[in-house]
Write a structure and sequence with these properties.
By secondary structure, the chain is α/β, with parallel strands linked by helices. The protein is built from 12 helices and 11 strands. It has a single domain, classed as Luciferase-like domain (TIM Barrel), CATH 3.20.20. 44% of the residues lie in helices and 15% in strands. The longest helix is centred in the last third of the chain and has 16 residues.
Length: 281
């Protein structure tokens, strides 16, 4: 499974009707993986897989509160039989603000992985990757899966994660960007709208505090310096520097999410093509 250095990440803003088109374009442009966020069910990956013949399709992430381990393993086995070597299952614990039953995240994740291992058709560890921020979850990701898929993190976290994981496990952080040189104010507004949601989630806010951001930087939608680091805006060349900063910090693969203004639902063709030119050539 060759993810290459760069993949694309799409979330709920992309309508399912466009999944095949998105995967086809990502493969055509030379990206190694297309990551689907929004806690997807595995069967929805089929459209992406059918539209392509080699790109890896990954979940970023399956929420373990919404699945039984054996069910997830069986759905993976069904896709693997038709599209061998092309599905990577990102798994995550979610957030306490979104799940009333949220408790003991590390123990719950271990139990879920144990359930997968004990199912009739176990999902291989090298075909899973964990959403991991803190040190203990990073340790678990390296011990039980292919590696870690951090989200909404600065390069300082990538550097820390690489040191914690060591040289073997895969490290594939997400990086949101906005390509817009015509209207910087609109680009900043889009970045703030995106960041405000995640800054209200304790897992992300606490993680940022570990890397030097204080309460004042996180409050009220985030300080400008924080927004610019987590959601760089500007030319393709400028945002590409932010993407490469994760590689310089130790990432193996960066999942690039190109944000669009609210209401956009189609494939961001222009942004992806611009990114491909500066990142892949």
């Amino acid at each position: 499974m060759d993810l290459t250095k760069f993949g694309l990440w799409v979330g709920r803003s992309l309508d399912q009707a466009h999944y095949g088109e998105a995967a086809e374009l990502a493969q055509e442009l030379g990206f190694g993986a297309l990551w689907l966020g929004g806690s997807p069910r595995l069967p929805v990956l089929r459209g992406m897989l059918e539209a392509t013949d080699r790109i890896v399709v990954a979940t970023g992430i399956v929420n373990i509160w919404q699945y039984e381990p054996a069910e997830l393993a069986a759905e993976f086995a069904a896709l693997e039989a038709e599209f061998p070597g092309r599905v990577l299952v990102g798994i995550g614990i979610g957030h306490p603000e979104a799940t009333q039953a949220y408790q003991r995240p590390l123990s719950k994740t271990r139990e879920f992985l144990d359930g997968i291992a004990g199912s009739d058709r176990p999902l291989p560890g090298e075909r899973m990757i964990l959403a991991a921020l803190g040190p203990k979850m990073l340790d678990l990701s390296g011990e039980r899966t292919l590696g870690a898929h951090p989200y909404f993190t600065p390069p300082a976290h990538t550097r820390f994660a690489r040191q914690r994981l060591g040289s073997g496990p895969l490290l594939a952080p997400e990086q949101a960007v906005i390509i817009d040189t015509a209207d910087p104010d609109a680009a900043l507004a889009t970045a703030r709208e995106y960041a405000a949601f995640y800054l209200r989630l304790s897992n992300y806010a606490n993680n940022l505090r570990r890397f030097g951001y204080d309460d004042a930087s996180i409050a009220d939608g985030g300080a400008r310096s924080l927004i610019d680091e987590l959601v760089p805006q500007g030319s393709p060349e400028h945002v590409a520097e932010a993407v490469r900063a994760h590689l310089d910090a130790g990432a193996d693969h960066v999942c690039v999410q190109t944000l669009q203004p609210s209401g956009s639902s189609g494939v961001p063709r222009d942004a992806w093509q611009a990114l491909a030119e500066v990142l892949i050539g």
